[in-house]
Amino acid sequence: MNNFSIKNVLKKNTMIIVMFVVYIFFVIMTNGVIFTESQFTALISQNAYVFVLGAGMLMCMLTGGNIDLSVGSFVCLVGAIAGVVSVIHMVNTPLTLLILVGIGVLYGVILGYLIAFLNIPPWIATLAGYLAFRGAGTEILTSVSTTSAISNFPADFLAIFSGRVFESPAGILNIPCLIFGVLCIALVAVMNFTSRAGKVKKGYEAEPMGYVIGKTILEAAIIGLLTYKLAMDGGIPTVLVWVVAIMVFYSFICEKTVIGRHFMTVGGNAETARLSGINNKIVMFVAYLNMSILTVIASLMVTARFKAANSFAGQNFEMDAISACIVGGVSAYGGAGTVFGMAIGATLIGIINLGMSLMGLDQNWQKVVKGGVLLAAVVFDIWTKKNSGKK
Amino acid sequence: MTGSKILSFLKKYMMLIALVAVVIFFNIATSGRALYAQNITNLIAQNAYVFVLATGMLLCILTGGNIDLAVGSVVCFAGGVGAIMMDKSIPWPVAVIVMLVMGLLIGMWQGFWIAFVKVPPFIATLAGMLAFRGLANVVMGGFAYSVTDTTYLNIFGGGADCYIPDLFAGIGPALTASDGTVMNKFCLVTGIVAAIAIVIYTFLHRAYLRKNGYKLESLVGTVIKTVIICAAIIWLFYKLSSYKGIPTALIWIGFILGLFAYITTKTTLGRNLYAVGGNEKATRLSGINTKMVMFKAYTLMGLLAGFAGVLNIARFVGAQPTYGMGYEMDAIAACFIGGASAYGGTGSIGGVIIGALMMGVINQGMDIMGTSSNYKLVVKGLVLLLAVFFDVIMKMRKKGGAKA
Lengths: 391, 404
Known about the structure:
The complex is a heterodimer. Chain A contains 16 helices and four strands. Chain A is an all-alpha fold. The radius of gyration of chain B is 22 Å and the shape is globular.
């Protein structure tokens, strides 16, 4: 019964291993193109929205496999409003952001109320938004612009969500990025060792020392590689800061706070949760309010990346976020899932997308592969659970 | 007492009343153009796919609020393959069979994962939505294919001549409508025959119920209901006959709706669908193979999606890689507007008809008014939300009433 036997460690980290295998596969297939500096930046900036929306979707799915179909359309609508407020009415950036977050809160409150207090099934309530927001967003854009897109966003608006932190020319090692990377490695190492020391002290079952050292070395190597690649390509992309901040914040909420545990409990068994004094409705309400606010952030990221608000922005984003969760091992029935798992799922999907694009595989086959990966991930999840149940 | 009676009446016929209100609204807003014979004909032909897909979606929803997100992509995939086959001058009956078989196989594929492996329907069909859209585009290579076989087009409701010709044209005096067009007498007669058939069926059924001692509706109620239905049918056929006659698409819609009305109300499979949606565990314990019921629901959905593909390429006289986008939403919305429960176990083909008509009327009314297609989406979203909202409020009241 060794929890840290090689077999168990491999089993626990299947998706991470799959991710590496897939990555190496694409490195070979693209003759190393995917391993170049600019592709690291591309991987991050293209997929930043998946992480943000995935975090929100995760919270919804935890409460019982509930989803939000309206995120993609809402991204489009918020982008359109951002364009109108910021570009056409020339409102200053802080106020614009405030207005947009306000709109997110408003929608979140309405949606949360419909789902949590009126018991409207989440996917119908959000299906209405899926239809309505796409229409409204497109209408706003076509009414103010002949190309149904708004560009010329002010520079300070774009700088918040795009570009690089302390940018330096590509090819020259970016010092702030390196320093930050070293700090990260140190932080991870300290956390790994203090966490083990804490467990030993309190008499919990702790990982063997060798495992902790191995894990730390591996993590340090990955962070180191990423840091080096980003430093060579001009520095840390601004969106990466957002993504990391959001990931850390939601990991903390999910694993260390009472409200986070409530999400799991409601998803695990709603009735038990209610009887043990948890207000299920508030939990559901918060999940959807949170989703809407994160959608606003995702919308700003996408708008900043394209430097424009488009009527086709956000198409299929809901699918990407859901796929990231499912591939990352979040239960489709609720109650189980981690932010870290979702991040692995998002990265895996991002690698597959990027790799296929670099290989020159056309969009259509990419869709087929995406669908296949999604189905395979769920089936894999169901089968492993069945087997562990038998034991 | 009277209050609760009015409430239950409202609850039962709310969507029908809403439909009539919407029709009247558009008729006024377009100063009568919405009810032109040609527009009514188009309404049917353009929305044939909603009727067909919503019928299949109803089966899935009945089993417990499960949906199929892949139908739009399946319509595109099956239609694309069919169009390519006809482009390669393979005879159309072969193409139609291939399209139907494709739909069936896709339905079985999805049904397998959903029913036997227990993959949540939403995810299994989401994967299908991506994969089949991709495959459709791969097969078509990004090109549009046109369908030129006029026999095919005429039979499945596309092109200029997809109407049942006036078989009675030479018999009796020629009738002309108020605007001077010659009326299609065959169409008119068909409408009258259909109305008579409904009257006869209603009263035979009533007699049967009385003979076997079932509870009967009041005679006045039955008469009023029958008169309204017959009036609606005769009015519809009158309108159709003053344009070009019965569109062939209507025959297919009628056939599919009739067949599935029969399946859902009179067959074991139909009752099982309701039972599974009402209480899956109880159904399983009473010896019904619930997995098989789920499997069949998705298989039939696939078959109907294949058939919608057949109608779709006829209506658009060709296939394009973008066809079928958003169809799943139209079908789902039609079911809910028609009163299907999002939790399964409740819903009917009659409701689907009302829901699909509502979507169609809104689509077309706004087209005629010249509103942009963007507003159409907004209105559709709001109507869907209102329908569910109304349903939920009604249920809450009922619960509250029962407690008090």
